[in-house]
Amino acid sequence: MCGATLEQRPGPFHNLPAFCYAIWSVPNEQAQRAHFGQNLFNGKELLAYCLWRRSLTPEESEDWEKALLSCLPGNLNEKLSGLPEFPRHLIESALKEQAPTGKL
């Protein structure tokens, strides 16, 4: 139970937890369209990508930026094979969900 081990605080907000935070993500639609040809990531998918992206080391981050810059809508299928497993899987899933035929 949150706050069970904390001392009671006086005032009208005494039942609120001592620590609160919020997380949200806002898609960069222009960048997504430039690299993927469409806006693929919103909500949970975008949050998963952002959390993964922030977990990279500086060297991995630099490699990822280079790989991402080389992705264009016309060569995306070719470039997906060279991407790390997590974002590749996320991108492929989003593309399959949005493709009318279910194919990339």
Highlighted features:
49% helix; 5 helices; mainly alpha; 104 residues
Record the SSE blueprint.
Blueprint: H1 29-36, H2 43-54, H3 58-69, H4 76-80, H5 85-98
What features would you describe in this structure?
The protein is an all-alpha fold and 104 residues long. The chain has a domain of 64 residues. The protein has 5 helices and no strands. The longest helix is centred in the C-terminal third of the chain and has 14 residues. The radius of gyration is 20 Å and the shape is elongated. The mean pLDDT is 78.
Helical amount among residues, as a percent range? 40-55%
Number of strands: 0
Distance between the termini: 47 Å
Gyration radius, rounded: 20 Å
Number of helices in the DSSP assignment: 5
Largest sheet: none
Could you say which structural class the secondary elements and strand pairing correspond to?
Answer: mainly alpha
The proportion of strand residues reads under 5%
Overall mean confidence score, pLDDT: 78
Spatial shape: elongated
Uncertain runs are none
The SSE order reads HHHHH
